[in-house]
Amino acid sequence: MTGSKEAFSELDGDVTGIVKFGDGSRMMIQGHDTIIFRCQNGEHRALTDVYYIPQLRSSIVSIGQLDKLRCELLIKSRILRIWDQEWRLLAKVKRSRNRLYLLDLKVEQLVCLAAWHTEEPWLWHARFGHLSFDALGRLEKMVQGERS
After folding, report:
1. Dist. CA 104–CA 37, nearest whole Å
2. What is the model's pLDDT at position 75?
3. Which of 50, 56, 73, 98 has the most CB within a 10 Å radius?
4. Residues 51/32, Cβ–Cβ less than 8 Å
5. What is the sign of the dihedral through the CA atoms of 76, 77, 80 and 85?
6. How far apart are CA 101 and CA 15, in angstroms?
């Protein structure tokens, strides 16, 4: 949940409702969509089904929402780790003194770059859903067999 409309590249305003918080307060949902953020290693990840709630002053990630998205969570030695469905690390957060896990996401806006490639490596990169070139090389070795 976030109160920052700028965090969304697009916003589906048809999704509405009410969120009730632990203190009994309620706030109106005025849309939802996906937020793209940059990990510390520079890779981009997506957090889907994020609610837009204009009254929120802070962004909140709900453990229930992460569970709904089938993320894996582990809290051990004061560190929260969150993995997506493909077991890619989304976040690693130290617990603060007030026992909150404060996650500083670097929100990115989607940029769509379209190009037409005729070079074979780029074609295979696209065919395999933009698989990294390192992984494509390993896949090629598995298919062809390791040459001595």
Report:
1. 10
2. 95
3. 50
4. yes
5. negative
6. 28
